[in-house]
Design a protein that fits this description.
heterotrimer, A mainly alpha, B alpha+beta, C mainly alpha, A: mainly alpha, two-stranded antiparallel ribbon, about 75% helix, C: mainly alpha, about 0% strand
Chain lengths: ~400, ~240, ~160
């Protein structure tokens, strides 16, 4: 039994949503953010970020594949999860997740990646051997037509899918915010800003993740980092972060100014149990610091090496900050009593089904999936392919 | 002497028949119950509650509620006031199952508040259930389909009153059923049955003869957290503004 | 645009349509029959919840046999206290009156549940500080639980036989 102080309704002492539910919006956020970054190049024709286009798509796919896992592990009856598709309850925000997820996975990500890679797949199906050959053959769907006309058609269809994909990505994550924001019983969650805040924090985390992955992958592959690209990505990160921070502060100021019946209880919570994760980790270290760091790169002319370091640091802090933000929303929203008279604690188990070890595995799993995806569908231009197979074998 | 006589006493035929239909517990055995003719609610009179915990114990026995979880519970409010500033203390040891130890503090405003599912007409919990495992029955009782609940806990989050919990063995959401197995057989709920002061009363809002109508007309009755507009049907008489 | 240039897209489209058909078929096969009978839930659930056996038979059931106790009770202040409020759940006893007997109750434990003085209780409710009130004597030494008024005190010695 967790310890609590003050008064909790007796059924409230035990927390309902664990660290796994913290991961879920974090992972989907990375997906949405990475996709929006990828679509910058495609729809808005930002040439500078092109080197990250395919990598961003694969990152989005890798994280999206893992996103439902924490939910599944958390269910009391995972074997009944199919009911979400069989008898979705229209008035439930959560019921729609199944469909939004499937739509985004199949109709947007898989299709876009397939169309973009089709030429490579067909060529790989002809050049590779063994099980890989079989895999690529399946992926071609038996059509080896990579004529100019066919590829041109792919390009146009791909563009349309990206255009549909942007609102879909917004939907996917804005909607995760709605799952929390629509709970009127919980004043910590219940705000119409929640989906918007979730969306922008998603873009921030996704952009930061792709930027970091690109720099790390380039290092592993021992290829030079395209600084024009990273500068551009960092610039977008900076702007989105400012919007995100503004929205979060708006939410905070609004709460303080309105001071409704829940305010004293929530204010106390932020100053005590959430002080480390909210004030220190999320706001100071995870938001203000990276914004300042990025601002420095925007204002001053710095050398490449310094910029790289700053970007790495800012990107890492950003991810920590966004993860802390998810934590504060999900866990924070359950630490206070709905009677506003007491506070409980969350004790995260280490080896429990919903414990720290599971959370760490779920965080590493998308990285592993990404590594597999990169091996199957190399995201870099062919001229670098020699280097890739070298890097891949080095990584084996 | 009485005892030995009772030992061999066989239930009167009519009573036996009525009892048979009650314990049979199948809709076929009680054909007179029509869901469309009832709209269940409950009345709680705070001025009558003595905090004895009978309701909590009866509920646990009637419904096999696991220890540490509560389908109904009693809170004790102790409110002191200095210069217009209220200090509210609330406790509910073991859900009030074994009553409350007398407090030594003098001069406080004190009272008991029995709590349970409000069987809201516009219930936020059924609204959020992703699969239709929890629902309001046609006779106004919020129920959970134990064979369909997937244990996502969204309903637990959505209940403003803290009435739901996840059963540690079935891993499904559970809560007060308003003793649906009893009220559909003509019995009252277990908590109402055992309440020694009639602080709780089951009410059928669709029954014009139910005393609830007269009661609601002549008393200042309030529901919990009315600003959330859940359509709560747990009506409280004598509810203090401090109660959340 | 020639057909053959769009062929791979049609193949993909076919996969999607096939997936959709499989989903619709699965859905028809897997959704419980009674789902939607009354609303967005399994109609059979109502019957299943109803089918739970009762534990508390209800005072009406008790009174069909124990009308003598009812008569006594009606004369006193406990007339509105249901039998099982003190005696506990006895549906099993109603099932088979000979096989299942109610437990003997200890009034020292039982009565104080309601009547121990507590400032949070309504002032009009009869309360005692049990330690001062009876000096350890069981309540039913003086009060008969079914008609607790103290006039029974005169017959207290007779009451002991019970």
């Amino acid at each position: 039994m967790p310890t609590f102080e003050g008064f909790m309704y007796p059924n409230e002492i035990e927390l309902q949503w664990s660290v796994l539910i913290v991961l879920y919006p974090f992972l989907t956020g990375l997906v949405a953010g990475a996709f929006i970054l990828a679509s910058l190049e495609r729809v808005f024709r930002v040439e500078a970020v092109k080197p990250t286009y395919r990598l961003a798509l694969l990152t989005a796919l890798a994280f999206l594949l893992v996103a439902p896992l924490p939910l599944q592990l958390h269910l009391g009856h995972p074997e009944r999860s199919l009911e979400m598709y069989l008898t979705p309850h229209r008035s439930s925000a959560m019921a729609m997740f199944g469909f939004v997820y499937l739509w985004y996975l199949m109709a947007v990500l898989v299709l876009e990646i397939w169309l973009d890679y089709r030429r490579d797949i067909v060529m790989l199906a002809q050049s590779s051997t063994g099980w890989r050959r079989l895999l690529y053959r399946v992926l071609t769907l038996g059509s080896y037509n990579i004529s100019e006309a066919a590829l041109d058609l792919d390009n146009r269809v791909g563009w349309i899918i990206t255009v549909i994909g942007i609102p879909s990505a917004f939907l996917l994550h804005g909607y995760v915010g709605f799952i929390f924001g629509s709970i009127k019983a919980n004043p910590w969650w219940s705000t119409p800003l929640m989906p918007v805040v979730f969306l922008f924090s998603a873009m921030v985390s996704g952009i930061a993740a792709v930027m970091l992955i690109y720099m790390v992958v380039s290092r592993i592959r021992r290829t030079p980092i395209d600084m024009r690209c990273v500068d551009a990505v960092a610039k977008y990160l900076f702007y989105t972060f400012i919007i995100d921070f503004t929205l979060e502060m708006l939410d905070l100021i609004h709460r303080i100014y309105e001071s409704d019946e829940s305010f004293r209880s929530l204010d106390f919570m932020v100053h005590t149990r959430l002080f480390l994760s909210q004030v220190i980790l999320q706001i100071l270290l995870g938001t203000v610091t990276p914004i300042l760091l990025l601002a420095v790169t925007q204002v001053f002319k710095l050398s490449e090496a310094v910029r790289k370091r700053i970007y790495s640091l800012a990107g890492s802090l950003t991810l920590i900050g966004i993860l802390a933000m998810r934590w504060n929303v999900v866990i924070g929203g359950q630490l206070f009593s709905k009677s506003f008279l007491g506070y409980t604690t969350y004790k995260m188990g280490l080896w429990a089904r919903e414990g720290l070890a599971t959370a760490i595995v779920l965080m590493l799993l998308p990285i592993f999936i990404l590594w597999v995806l990169v091996k199957i569908l190399p995201p870099w231009p062919e001229k670098e392919k020699g280097l890739l197979s070298h890097a891949a074998s080095a990584g084996d | 002497m009485n005892l030995s006589r009772r030992k061999f006493l066989i239930l009167l035929p009519a009573a036996a028949l009525a009892w048979e239909s009650i314990k049979a517990g199948t809709p076929e055995a009680a054909p007179n119950y029509n869901v469309s003719q009832h709209w269940w609610a409950m009345l709680v009179d705070i001025e009558k509650c003595i905090g004895c915990g009978s309701c909590v114990r009866a509920c646990q026995k009637e419904n096999d509620v696991p220890d540490g979880y509560y389908r109904t519970w009693i809170e004790r409010y102790r409110i002191s006031e200095v210069d217009g500033v209220e200090n509210i203390q609330v406790d509910s040891p073991d859900g009030g199952k074994n009553g409350f130890k007398p407090s030594n503090e003098q001069g406080l405003k004190e009272f008991f508040v029995p709590k349970m599912c409000n069987h809201c007409a516009d219930s936020p919990c059924t609204q959020v259930c992703p699969v239709g495992a929890t629902f309001a029955s046609p006779d106004g009782v919020v129920l959970i389909d134990q064979k369909y609940c997937l244990g996502c806990r969204y309903c637990v989050q959505a209940c403003p009153y803290g009435c739901r919990f996840i059963h540690p063995e079935t891993n499904t959401a559970q809560k007060c059923t308003l003793c649906y197995h009893r009220i559909t057989q003509g019995l009252t709920t277990a908590c109402c049955e055992v309440c020694p002061t009639a602080a709780r009363q089951l009410a059928d809002l669709k029954n014009p003869k139910d005393p609830i109508h007269e009661y609601l007309r002549t008393h200042s009755v309030q529901v919990l957290k009315p600003h959330l507009a859940t359509g709560a049907k747990l009506y409280y008489n004598g509810l203090d503004g401090a109660v959340r | 645009m020639k057909f053959k240039d769009a062929e791979h897209l049609l193949r993909m489209a076919f996969l999607f349509v096939a997936g959709l058909i499989v989903f619709v078929l699965l859905r028809n096969a897997l959704v419980p029959r009674s789902f939607g009978q009354y609303g967005h839930y399994r109609g059979d659930a109502l019957g299943e919840i109803k089918a739970r056996p009762v534990a508390y038979a209800g005072h009406g059931t008790c009174e069909t046999c124990h009308s003598d106790v009812l008569e006594v009770k009606d004369k006193g202040k406990h007339t509105h206290v249901a039998c099982e409020s003190c005696h506990g759940p006895l549906a099993k006893h109603a099932d088979d009156p000979t096989a299942v007997q109610p437990e003997k109750l200890d009034t020292r434990v039982l009565c104080v549940r309601c009547h121990e003085a507590n400032s949070a209780k309504p002032k009009s409710f009869p309360q005692v500080v049990s330690a001062d009130h009876s000096a350890g004597l069981a309540c039913n030494e003086c009060h008969k639980p079914h008609t607790p008024v103290i006039e029974a005190e005169a017959k207290a010695t007779g009451g002991k036989k019970k």
